[in-house]
């Protein structure tokens, strides 16, 4: 498995906020294996925290141990998609089993968004309303679609997006990990470019930090991602800090390992390239 930390810069921050007594968000950053995970738990006292941590832990464990082909060839995109679905399904089984067997955990569940960078592409798996955005140049695009009651109403044309953003029912989700024996996972694949910045966030950020502010922060602070993450969290708290808030920021700073860039170079250049799939140091 190539080391993706040569190509990715990752930072993350999570905060309890100003109202909640504990933090039910969980995040994990793995630049070496090229993925990031964010979950926002729900349930009774501390159960949401258990659900989110359990789900993240299961996804991380699975993605770190996927059985790569014995041929040495990189897996096909369909294989990464299959593995992502399996990772989320395993997380769902673990949370559901705990919720079914322990009274204190009954009814717990969690949102989940997983970003996996491979071969010039990004694979995204998500359940619930935690989001993933991409900043390319100065344009911010939301790459996930909320699994929520309000989003369904928007899709049906019953309300506008502006009305949804002002609604008091923003947190009613229609899918979650761990609330049933099976889970419907939404998967997408996107091409990536050097310079892209990706934002995973919980609804403590997406509900209370305007998109225009996110664009301004990421554009102005893309050379200092730790500061950008801290600023987004502070903006959520400045808006009242009613919920836990979490962000994971990832910048594509070099071509991803295994994306074929080596094969695009001809002649004697190949003799001077490192053999581990990384681009040469500047």
Automatic annotation (TrEMBL):
Residues 3-252 form the PPM-type phosphatase domain. It comes from the Bacteria. PROSITE patterns: PPM_2. InterPro entries: PP2C (IPR015655), PPM-type-like_dom_sf (IPR036457), PPM-type_phosphatase-like_dom (IPR001932). Its EC number is 3.1.3.16. GO terms for molecular function: protein serine/threonine phosphatase activity. Keywords: Hydrolase. The keyword Lyase does not apply. It holds the Pfam family PP2C_2. It is an enzyme of class 3 (hydrolase). PANTHER family: PROTEIN PHOSPHATASE. This is Protein phosphatase.
